[in-house]
Amino acid sequence: MIAQNIEILRDRILRACEKAGRNRDDISVVAVSKTFDADRVREAAEAGIRDFGENYVQELQRKRTDLPDDLRWHFVGHLQTNKVRQIADYVHLIHSVDNLRLAKELQKRAEKAGRTIDVLVEVHTTDEATKYGVAPEETAELVGQIAELDRVQVRGLMTMGPFSDDPNDSRPSFRQVVELKKSIEDRGWKRVSMDELSMGMTHDFEAAIEEGATILRIGTAIFGERKTQ
Ligand SMILES: *Cc1c(COP(=O)(O)O)cnc(C)c1O
Fold first, then answer.
1. Is the CB of residue 31 below 6 angstroms from any atom belonging to ligand 1?
2. CA-based R_g, the chain, Å
3. Which residues pair with 73 in a beta bridge?
4. Closest residue (by CA) to atom 10 of ligand 1?
5. Are 122 and 135 in contact (CB under 8 A)?
6. Among the atoms of ligand 1, which is closest to the Cα of residue 220?
7. What is the pLDDT of residues 106-126, one digit of tens each?
8. pLDDT tens digits for 48-90?
9. Residues with Cβ < 8 Å from 75, sequence gap 6 or more?
10. Would you say the CB of residue 157 lies under 6 angstroms from ligand 1?
11. Which of 12, 76, 158 for mutating ligand 1's site (highest number of atoms within 8 Å of CB)?
12. For every residue of 19-55, which 3-state class applies, written as one string?
């Protein structure tokens, strides 16, 4: 089932790229495996997925020990500063950095681990009160502050569209992030890359591809409906 879902997903991504005139190689997929067990992740890995995303540190830690080490683990949920230590040695990309205190903790833990940690800055682009992320007007300042931390590398921005069935409702969010990316690039900060835009989930990834996403975070279209969130 998962292998077939992945095949359908790949086909949809390819068609969206063709429609948008984008190169398929510029888009990557993070399979968001929250609530699904290690066996489901293994199934997706056997179908060729290498990048997996989780929202909870404990769940990630548990799954990771059961799975091959060549998988890359992304953290896509709200990350508490006191949980950083547990994932600092291996996390591939953190999509959800939205405050300097968290970035400073990442700096400290990356130094201890003798590595650099790649991050995206999460931008809050909807008026929904429940979502995390830095305000659009504060994003450039936060990126500039993180750029001073030599063990934390900013790779780009992440956002989530509003809760809505209509993918077009996500376009204003995606466009706002594209504008922010451009304005941050214009500052010419040496230690900052804006190459990655993590946006688009199961219901709105085609719109995200059209608007410029480079990383899609896909759960349901790969693993099926989640029982709990
Ligand atoms: C769960 C989740 C996703 C995947 O959502 P689907 O709608 O199942 O594709 C993507 N990003 C984040 C941050 C998530 O929490």
1. no
2. 17
3. 52
4. 217
5. no
6. 8
7. 999 999 999 999 999 999 999
8. 999 999 999 999 999 999 999 999 999 999 999 999 999 999 9
9. 53, 54, 55, 57, 60, 87, 91, 93, 94, 95, 96
10. no
11. 76
12. HHCCCHHHCEEEEECCCCCHHHHHHHHHCCCCEEEEC
Residue 55 CB less than 6 A away from ligand 1: yes
User: In angstroms, what is the span from residue 33 Cα to ligand 1's centroid?
Assistant: 9
Instruction: Count other C-beta atoms under 10 Å from residue 136's C-beta.
Output: 17
* Token couple for 167: 């993918």
Tokens coding 216 = 């899609």
Rounded to whole angstroms, the Cα distance separating 171 from 142 reads 24
Six-digit token pair at 132?
A: 């995390």
Both structure tokens of 11: 């086909």
What is the spatial distance between Cα 83 and Cα 8, in angstroms, rounded to a whole number? 36
Q: Hey, whose CA ends up nearest to atom 4 of ligand 1?
A: 219
Q: What is the pLDDT of residue 227?
A: 86
76 lines ligand 1 (CB under 6 A): yes
Nearest C-alpha neighbor of 200 from the set 40, 55, 30: 30
Q: Is 37 within 8 Å of 17 (Cβ atoms)?
A: no
Residue nearest ligand 1's atom 11 by CA: 217
Residue nearest atom 12 of ligand 1, based on CA coordinates: 76
Contacts of 10 (CB under 8 A, 6+ apart): none
CA distance 189 to 34: 35
For 6, the token pair is 């992945």
